[in-house]
Design brief:
The complex is a heterodimer of chains A (364) and B (268). In chain A, 23% of the residues lie in helices and 34% in strands. Chain A has 364 residues and is α+β, with helices and mostly antiparallel strands. Chain A has 2 domains: 234 residues, P-loop containing nucleotide triphosphate hydrolases (Rossmann fold, 3-Layer(aba) Sandwich); 115 residues, OB fold (Dihydrolipoamide Acetyltransferase, E2P), CATH 2.40.50. In chain A, strands 6-7-8-3-9-10 form a 6-stranded mixed beta sheet, sandwiched between helices. The radius of gyration of chain A is 25 Å and the shape is elongated. By secondary structure, chain B is an all-alpha fold. Chain B has a single domain, classed as MetI-like fold, CATH 1.10.3720.10. Helices cover 74% and strands 0% of the residues of chain B. Chain B starts with 14 loop residues before the first helix and ends with a helix. The chains are: A alpha+beta (364), B mainly alpha (268). The interface between A and B is medium-sized, with 25 and 21 residues.
Chain lengths: 364, 268
């Protein structure tokens, strides 16, 4: 048993690895993953397909067994419990609503299996259907509903038994854009109203940034970074995170000097940038700096100069692909003027101002 | 410029004629059989007038009654056994743990479909002879159960394989134990396949001749055996009547089978 009692942790994943196959075909879907997910948190597992996020979710639900490691649900080890003995419910990617049952029977299924009183099942089912605004569809069959409506029923079905943790496996991916955006707000509100810990799996960074309290960025079976949406976006720890979340420019720079953990780095045209030292880079070494395209200002007085190679109109903004004098290319995203015109044109020589605070040194 | 003509199979001359001929060839004998079952004449080949006499006669014939009863007993029992066994086999193969030679096992279950029936018949007869099993209704039921299994197995397995196992995962996620998951989710969802398999098995059993002939004993005559016995004394309207009844039964079964599969498509 775990000696440390900390009921603020809803789900604790400790050093979990999951291997599929064996020998030469061994696939490490998860490779030594540890995370603590707090009570009442909207926690997102974000990563490209094949990064292990769905495997981790299936391990927490109990559909798969880990190769090594432990999983705790409010300090109780659950690794050896079958799915039906875990107070965790799942919203499946394709909903998996029982086609031979009505909406109400679907929503009441969990409570029925828990042997609750029929009047309580009825009351709780209708209550949950009201919560997702689907109470008028109680007697329909799932095939008679649209994708968005099925999504709500799947949510209601998983919420009705009041689980300790709700798992959501890319539940919005089958919906169209407008519906998806509306559902984000609703999911976030549902999580606040119910006070249930949500663990949400997605490959959509925008979904992750808009809904989550915290995000774990995953790649190749490992957790790359865990943090709040702003942490992840503004302070990516490595190249993968900086590249996967939003757009980034990666510039090679040389560390000139280090003072109080602030590194002075030189770019093209001897343009100097002062930023916090990350990792163990010695003075004189070359490091990678990540800079968001929208944080660079075009400004003719700057000593850092380049020629505009390409302009890409994006509606609200224009992307300028600029070639610096040391022939690295950099993308700058600049808001268009009130008339909608791009402020610069192809072939023009411009100065670039990179604020020190917008630069992030990468550990790798 | 002349437009290029796209040839369709429907454009070829004489297609309608050939189609009519094809269907006539297929169904004419059966239509004649049904029509002549209403013939008044004692000689089956000469039409004398419409009459239901032969139906009355056939239905009140004790031998026909007992043969029909035998056929029904055999078909019902063999269908129940074959369907239960096939359902278990399909569940084990589609939902159980993967094992080496899984494809081979699936193949072996379906293999009797392509083994010549006469070979199965002779083999079954010699088997019963070797172990000293008394031929009669029980031996027929055992033999029918065996050859009905692949027919029942195929639709059940097809249904299970087409079923997403996410439904069962969802059930266990919602606190259903293994038995409850089977009872409330797997079984209702696979039911159309089970019903289809059972009906196929029933038709195959009620209609079987060669194997039944080999393994039947005294007093265990089934309807097809009885018809064969009658034909040897010439085709009487009575034979036409029994054949017509069996034909109608089969059509009813196929129709129900079709509706069940259609419903399965809608819910699955």
């Amino acid at each position: 048993m775990n000696p440390v009692i900390n009921s603020n942790i809803a789900v604790s994943v400790r050093n979990i690895s999951k291997h599929f196959g064996g020998g030469k075909e061994l696939v490490k879907a998860l490779d030594g993953v540890s995370i603590d997910i707090s009570d009442n948190e909207f926690f997102t597992l974000l990563g490209p397909s094949g990064c292990g996020k769905t495997t981790l979710l299936r391990l927490i639900a109990g559909f798969e067994l880990s190769t090594v490691g432990e999983i705790f649900l409010y300090d109780e080890e659950i690794e050896n419990l079958p799915p039906h003995k875990r107070s965790i419910n799942t919203v499946f990617q394709h909903y998996a609503l029982f086609p031979h049952m009505t909406v109400e029977e679907n929503v009441g299924f969990g409570l029925r299996m828990l042997n609750r009183d029929p009047t309580e099942i009825k009351r709780r089912s209708m209550e949950t259907l009201e919560l997702v605004k689907m109470d008028q569809f109680a007697n329909r069959k799932p095939v008679q509903l649209s994708g968005g409506q099925q999504q709500r029923i799947a949510l209601a079905r998983a919420l009705a038994p009041e689980p300790k943790v709700l798992l959501l496996d890319e539940p919005l991916s089958a919906l169209d854009l407008k519906l998806r955006q509306a559902m984000r707000m609703e999911l976030k509100n549902l999580q606040r109203e119910t006070g249930i810990t949500f663990i949400f799996v997605t490959h959509d960074q925008e979904e992750a940034l808009t809904m989550s309290d915290r995000i774990a960025v995953m790649s190749a079976g490992k957790i790359q970074q865990v943090g709040g949406p702003m942490d992840i976006y503004e302070r990516p720890i490595n190249r993968f995170v900086a590249d996967f979340i939003g757009d980034s420019n990666f510039l090679q720079a040389k560390i000139e000097s280090v003072l109080d953990n602030q590194a002075n780095c030189l770019l093209s045209d001897n343009f100097s940038i002062c930023t916090s030292l990350v990792g163990t880079h010695p003075t004189g070494s070359t490091v990678t700096l990540a800079i968001r395209p929208e944080k660079i200002k075009l400004n003719d007085e700057s000593t850092l100069r380049g020629d505009i190679q390409e302009t890409v109109y994006l509606g609200t903004d224009t992307n300028y692909i600029i070639k610096l004098n040391d022939s690295t290319t950099i993308t700058v995203r600049d808001q268009n003027g009130v008339t909608g015109d791009a402020r610069y044109s192809k072939g023009q020589s411009v100065g670039l101002h990179i604020p020190d605070s917008s630069v992030r040194m990468l550990a790798d | 410029m002349a437009k290029k003509k796209i040839y369709k199979i429907g454009d070829y001359p004489g297609l309608t004629g050939w189609t009519v001929f094809f269907f006539a060839y297929l169904y004419m004998p059966m239509i004649v059989l049904v029509v002549y079952s209403f013939n008044e004449s004692r000689r089956a080949q000469i039409w004398k007038g419409f009459s239901l006499d032969w139906y009355v006669k056939a239905f009140s014939n004790d031998d026909i009654q007992s043969a029909a009863l035998n056929s029904l007993i055999v078909a019902v029992i063999a269908t129940v056994f074959a369907t239960v066994i096939s359902t278990l086999a399909a569940l084990a193969l589609a939902r159980g743990r993967q094992f080496r030679g899984q494809a081979a096992v699936t193949g072996l279950i379906s293999l009797p479909l392509v083994v010549p029936e006469i070979a199965t018949a002779v083999a079954t007869l010699s088997f019963f002879a070797v172990i000293g099993f008394k031929l009669g209704l029980v031996s027929i039921i055992i033999a029918h159960t065996v050859f009905c299994i692949p027919f029942a197995f195929l639709p059940i397995r097809a249904r299970l394989q087409g079923m997403d196992d996410a439904y069962e995962q969802a059930a266990s996620d919602l606190y259903a134990n293994d038995w409850q998951t089977f009872r409330y989710v797997t079984l209702p969802l696979m039911m159309p396949g089970v019903v289809a398999g059972a009906m196929l098995a029933f038709i195959i059993s009620i209609d079987d001749f060669i194997i039944t002939l080999m393994v039947s004993g005294a007093g265990s005559t089934t309807l097809p055996l009885y018809i064969y016995g009658m034909i040897r004394q010439g085709i009487t309207p009575e034979v036409n009547v029994i054949s017509t009844v069996m034909l109608v039964l089969s059509i009813i079964f196929i129709t129900v089978y079709w509706f069940v599969s259609k419903k399965a498509e809608e819910t699955g």
